Amino acid sequence: MSALLEVAGLTKRFGGVTAVDNCSFSVEKGTITALIGPNGSGKTTAFNMITGYLKADAGTMRFNGHDVAKPNPAKLYRSGLSRTFQQARIFPELSVRENLVVASGFSWGDLFGMRVSKSDRAAANEMLEEFRLDALADLRAADLSYGQRKLLEFAAVLMSSPKLVLLDEPTAGVNPVMIDTMERHVRARHAEGVTFLIVEHDMQLVMRLCDPVIVLDNGAPIATGKPADVQSNPLVLDAYLGA
Ligand code: ADP
Which Pfam families match (predicted)? Predict the structure, then answer.
């Protein structure tokens, strides 16, 4: 296996709080890697630095064999690293279909000037079908349920044919049927070669879906390994129990 993403020495301070503290880990190509840890352990801050939404105080990053000196969300998206957010970031006033077309890399001008190519329309239609969103295609994204918005955001990030997808709590607040749907789509894309890094609080889902599992505490990994090994690691139990 080889690392698709490597971070080393990643650090972020907010005033007196060191949210991410000299944090190093890698995501091997072809894995569904989980990033877990108690609330406040630095997962979201790490995600935000890796994806260029937050500037790191220190640290280096390599993605797909290239050093990324200054992570930038748009550039990373184009080079195959995309992410979702805890609160789905979609265009609420656009339709479900338009959200997918925009995500494939078209500018607003292209969309409203109707210069979207046939192949991009076809790609959006395929994604609608794959995600069983076709019946909702012409609804405004704002009119979807919370879970459907998260599903749409997931479908949208796949429009860029990413190599690595970072999912930030994909199942938080969604119903059990939608949890199964999310899991099915992660597995399907993983089978096609997409690598995942997932922040997730549903431990049952992590245990059946992810390998390896990286556990953060106080801004740095305290354990990495197979789900069962991590689950029985005393350091991990202490971190979760606040000991
Ligand atoms: P997690 O995602 O694991 O719950 P976070 O990355 O959100 O953890 O937070 C890590 C620590 O950094 C927490 O102590 C949190 O309060 C702090 N923190 C996160 N973002 C900010 C911010 N924008 N300003 C100040 N403190 C922050």
Answer: ABC_tran (PF00005), BCA_ABC_TP_C (PF12399)
Angle at CA 88, nearest 5°, toward 132 and 187?
Answer: 50
Domain definitions of the chain by residue range: 3-88+163-242, 91-143
What is the rounded distance in angstroms from the CA atom of residue 229 to the CA atom of residue 81? 29
Could you give the ipTM of this predicted complex?
A: 0.97
| pTM of model > 0.95 | no
Q: Give the distance (Å) from ligand 1 centre to CA of residue 108.
A: 33
Instruction: Please tell me the residue having the least CA distance from ligand 1 atom 15.
Output: 40
CA of 11 to the centre of ligand 1 (A): 12
The binding-site residues of ligand 1, defined as CB within 6 angstroms of any ligand atom, are 14, 17, 19, 37, 39-45
Looking at domain 3-88+163-242, its CATH superfamily turns out to be P-loop containing nucleotide triphosphate hydrolases (3.40.50.300)
Phi, psi of 67 (to 5 degrees): -70, 135
Top pLDDT among 88 and 13 is at 13
